[in-house]
């Protein structure tokens, strides 16, 4: 199939879904066997309402639906009115996601490398890691909120908790599977123990770390949203909970769409970076 | 002439399935300065084991190993000794030139000088223009040439080579022989070259040490006195080559048969 055909199909499917979503429920009374109850706009809203809600939540239009002017300060006045408007919420969630991702991948890498290269540490810590890993991370979220409060710290810690294990296990595996011949080659070329670590073990393990970055960024976002659900003053997760309390399906849907876009952008950036860092591997060159 | 590599009654025993297996037994050899010696034997005869013990990659079970008259120290391999692996062990995350310049980097050589020496090495190996490539995008022959240069760039006086061209096709192998002969005839390193390929041993070496089937013992030695510089291709067409080939071939053949029965 040509790229154009594929694109046409994709557009057609997207439009079809939007049409069903927008007008499908109006057929419910006449064809109750065909249209499920779930399509009720009370639950899932509908595209036009979501778009409307988006314009309001993002301060692009005022209460009467008139476009806010950038010049005369209407936009900034609207922004100032709400502590958790769409822009602020997105920024907060994004910031905490990136922070959790950074802390999680770094600490996961360091731990994985240290344990992966030391049989003694592995033997000592193995039962603790297995035990900690078998706790569903989500179960710890309320405790984290309790301990770290409603601010950013608790969200970063939650994100860290879901990312760190993922990266740890990948790095651990990578550190164990460093090619012995590479280490021998380095040693015979005059490398000291420290130089072997720096120039062979770390770069070779990094390949495994990079492979875990794409899932890690998605996990970080999940962690942050989860933290915001349980206790937060700001963020997109908080927006969803507030909209739910008010029974506003459109409000929730706006937040979900923003999350989707944030997720896609983050994953795309990370995948690009990952492909660049792994350009020496033939398989990653193929899917660039 | 100075002896650069010497083993005395060298032996190696591996534990296989709880039983001791003698891989190398009573090997005493001496290699003089600037000599190119081939260690020839059937597969599994322990020739790589001998080389790896000399290279400090494996501990020896008995006997002594002296490099430049000093017993080797497994924790601190001598900087005078270079090793070329059978497998391609280029670092895949480094470009070809970063691989070749690796040892210079370790030794703290300044970037300018490093670049210059790396470029010279690339040219010597016929890899001009491939410096920025990653190893995975090179052919097997090119990778092995790069690996050879990575070892040679620090100008080791002693070279240990473990069937370095074993995985290459015949044509590429001959090309590698030409490259190696070129370099060696200019620099005259002391070389111990492990191979099971008699043609290769005859093309390259001054002396062939023939090992028996397992446990590896020295069976016979042959002097290869073909004139130098040698041409890897035309050498094979000379009567002297054919005569020596058939002499060693019979002796080697017996060991192949024994190796297959064991």
Give a verbal description of the structure.
The complex is a heterodimer of chains A (288) and B (262). Chain A is built from 14 helices and no strands. With 288 residues, chain A is mainly alpha-helical. The two termini of chain A are 20 Å apart. Residues 284-288 of chain A have low confidence and may be disordered. Chain B folds into two domains: 3-80 and 158-261, P-loop containing nucleotide triphosphate hydrolases (Rossmann fold, 3-Layer(aba) Sandwich), CATH 3.40.50; 92-155, no CATH class. Chain B has a six-stranded mixed sheet, with helices on both faces. In chain B, 43% of the residues are buried. The model of chain B has no long low-confidence stretch (mean pLDDT 90). The A-B interface holds A 179, 181-182, 184-192, 195, 199-200, 203-204, 206-207, 279-282 and B 55-57, 77, 79, 81-83, 85, 87, 89, 91-95, 102-103, 105-107, 134-137, 150-151, 154.
Number of continuous helical runs of chain B: 8
Query: Are there runs of chain B of 5+ residues with pLDDT below 50, and where?
Result: none
Number of domains of chain B: 2
Strand arrangement across the biggest beta sheet of chain B: 6-7-8-3-9-10
For the residues shown, what is the average pLDDT of chain B? 90
Domains of chain A (count): 2
Alpha-beta content class of chain B: alpha/beta
CATH superfamily heading of the largest domain in chain A:
MetI-like
CATH topology of the largest domain in chain B: Rossmann fold
CATH topology of the largest domain in chain A: MetI-like fold
Which geometry of chain B do the CA atoms define? globular
Q: Which regions of chain A have little confidence, pLDDT < 50, spanning 5+ residues?
A: 284-288
Q: Using a beta-carbon cutoff below 8 angstroms, give the protein chain pair with the largest interface and the number of residues from each chain.
A: A-B, 23 and 28 residues
């Amino acid at each position: 199939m040509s790229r154009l055909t594929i694109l046409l199909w994709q557009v057609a499917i997207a439009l079809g879904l939007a049409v069903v979503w927008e007008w499908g429920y109006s057929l419910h009374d006449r064809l109750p066997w065909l249209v499920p109850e779930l399509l009720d706009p009370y639950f899932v809203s509908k595209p036009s309402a979501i778009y409307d809600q988006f314009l309001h939540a993002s301060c692009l239009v005022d209460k009467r639906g008139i476009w806010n002017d950038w010049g005369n300060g209407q936009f900034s006045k609207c922004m100032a009115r709400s502590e958790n408007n769409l822009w602020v919420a997105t920024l907060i969630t994004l910031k905490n996601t990136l922070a959790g991702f950074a802390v999680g991948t770094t600490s996961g890498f360091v731990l994985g490398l240290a344990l992966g290269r030391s049989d003694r540490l592995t033997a000592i810590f193995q039962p603790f890691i297995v035990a900690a890993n078998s706790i569903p991370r989500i179960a710890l979220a309320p405790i984290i909120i309790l301990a770290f409060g409603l601010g950013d710290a608790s969200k970063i810690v939650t994100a860290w908790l879901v990312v760190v294990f993922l990266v740890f296990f990948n790095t651990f595996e990578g550190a164990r599977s460093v090619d012995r011949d590479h280490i021998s080659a380095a040693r015979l070329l005059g490398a000291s123990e420290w130089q072997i670590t720096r120039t062979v073990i770390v770069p070779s393990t990094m390949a495994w770390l990079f492979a875990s970055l794409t899932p890690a960024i998605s996990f970080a976002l999940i962690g942050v949203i989860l933290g915001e659900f349980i206790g937060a003053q700001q963020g997109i997760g908080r927006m969803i909970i507030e909209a739910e309390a008010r029974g506003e399906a459109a409000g929730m849907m706006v937040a979900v769409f923003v999350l989707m876009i944030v997720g896609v952008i983050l994953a795309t950036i990370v995948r690009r970076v990952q492909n660049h860092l792994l350009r020496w591997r033939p398989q990653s060159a193929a899917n660039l | 002439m100075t002896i650069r590599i010497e083993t005395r009654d060298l032996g190696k025993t591996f534990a296989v399935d709880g039983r001791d297996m003698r891989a190398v037994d009573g090997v005493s050899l001496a290699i003089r300065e600037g000599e190119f010696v081939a260690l020839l034997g059937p597969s599994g005869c322990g020739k790589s084991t001998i080389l790896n013990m000399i290279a400090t990659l494996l501990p020896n079970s008995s006997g002594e190993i002296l490099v430049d008259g000093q017993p080797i120290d497994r924790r601190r391999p001598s900087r005078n000794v270079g090793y070329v692996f059978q497998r391609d062990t280029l670092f895949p995350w480094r470009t070809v030139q970063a691989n070749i310049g690796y040892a210079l980097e370790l030794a703290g050589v300044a970037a300018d000088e490093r670049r210059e020496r790396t470029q010279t090495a690339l040219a010597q190996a016929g890899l001009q223009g491939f410096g920025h490539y990653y190893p995975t995008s090179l052919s097997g022959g090119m990778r092995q040439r790069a690996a050879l240069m990575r070892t040679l760039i620090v100008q080791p006086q002693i070279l240990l080579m473990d069937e370095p061209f074993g995985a290459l096709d015949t044509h590429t192998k001959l090309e590698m022989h030409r490259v190696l002969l070129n370099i060696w005839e200019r620099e005259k390193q002391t070389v111990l070259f492990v191979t099971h390929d008699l043609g290769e041993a005859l093309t390259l070496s001054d002396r062939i040490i023939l090992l028996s089937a397992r446990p590896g013992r020295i069976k016979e030695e042959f002097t290869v006195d073909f004139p130098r510089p040698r041409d890897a291709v035309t050498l094979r067409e000379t009567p002297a080559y054919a005569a020596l080939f058939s002499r060693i071939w019979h002796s080697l053949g017996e060991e192949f048969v024994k190796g297959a029965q064991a």
